[in-house]
Write a structure and sequence with these properties.
With 271 residues, this protein is mostly helical. The chain has three domains: 61 residues, no CATH class; 45 residues, Arc Repressor Mutant, subunit A (Orthogonal Bundle), CATH 1.10.10; 155 residues, Tetracycline Repressor, domain 2. 79% of the residues lie in helices and 0% in strands. It has 13 helices and no strands. Helix 6 crosses helix 7 and helix 10 packs across helix 11. The longest helix has 28 residues. It is elongated. It starts with a helix and ends with a helix.
């Protein structure tokens, strides 16, 4: 409708411009200047068409980009994860999350009923996904779980800012498990998935003869998680990457001790 009104307004301007041009020319020339009506209509139609295309192109340029609800939700989750990792859940600032995500408060409450619902989704969809990619999937596909476990431990970041922030799962579990049953159940499930993937990988290693047969896979998985997360807590408290370096060495040595005898011989030959 706006486009049509603009065209009508411009049509009047074009007609007035032609009349002024004709009058000026006639005043200066001895021979009257007459524009055939058919030619005038043709020129006007051409001008109107050009203007119509210009207006439409301008509207296309100024039109807002189509909304993508899934992208908005993903940006909110990632922004909330970063803020919660930095400040904890209770201190996480919704305005900071909105600013980081580049969305409005209305978009936040369109996707999540409240701050707790946003925090739950961060555990279920971001923290769980990150742990699955880093631990669960590699262990499920590992031919030798000993090598894979050592590789994962050694790949942990030793950057000072990462050591200072600690483990997102551990941080949230410590902060919220005693305060909110929803967070306790969700973080417990992530820990269980981690434990089960590690225990299953060790059992498969025992079947292949690369993991010692005298160990209990479930207890060993629990110990490894506890040992590693313990070093993460100490590193966060000390704010010193050297603590994490020590943890990498000690935990890796314990994992190495889980090799079957023939596996230790092969590892020694490779060394």
């Amino acid at each position: 409708m706006r486009c049509r009104r603009e065209i009508i307004r411009r049509r009047g301007h074009i007609w007035q411009a032609f009349l002024r041009l004709s009058m000026q020319f006639n005043r200066r020339c001895s021979v009257p200047f007459v524009i055939p009506y058919s030619s005038l209509i043709l020129v006007m139609r051409t001008c109107i068409l050009v203007r119509m295309l210009t207006v439409r192109a301008r509207h296309r340029r100024l039109a807002p980009a189509p909304r993508d609800p899934e992208l908005t939700r993903t940006r909110l989750l990632q922004a909330a994860f970063q803020e919660m990792h930095r400040s904890g859940f209770r201190s996480a600032d919704l305005d900071a999350i909105l600013a980081r995500a580049g969305v409005t408060k209305g978009a936040l409450y369109y996707h999540f009923d409240n701050k707790e619902a946003l925090g739950y989704a961060v555990v279920d969809e971001v923290i769980a996904s990150n742990l699955h990619q880093k631990w669960v999937r590699p262990l499920r596909n590992a031919k030798n779980p000993i090598d894979m476990l050592i590789r994962i431990i050694q790949s942990e970041s030793l950057k000072r800012e990462d050591v200072q922030r600690g483990c997102p799962l551990l941080n949230l579990s410590q902060e919220m498990s005693g305060l909110d049953e929803g967070f306790r159940r969700r973080t417990a499930k992530v820990y269980k998935d981690w434990h089960d993937a590690m225990a299953e990988a060790l059992r498969e290693g025992q079947k292949r003869g690369v993991v010692r047969s005298d160990i209990n896979a479930n207890e060993t998985a629990t110990f490894l998680i506890a040992a590693w997360e313990g070093y993460v807590v100490l590193g966060k408290n000390s704010q010193d990457p050297k603590t994490m370096q020590s943890g990498q060495r000690r935990v890796s040595r314990h994992i190495e001790s889980l090799r079957a005898a023939r596996g230790r011989a092969r590892a020694a030959n490779r060394g």
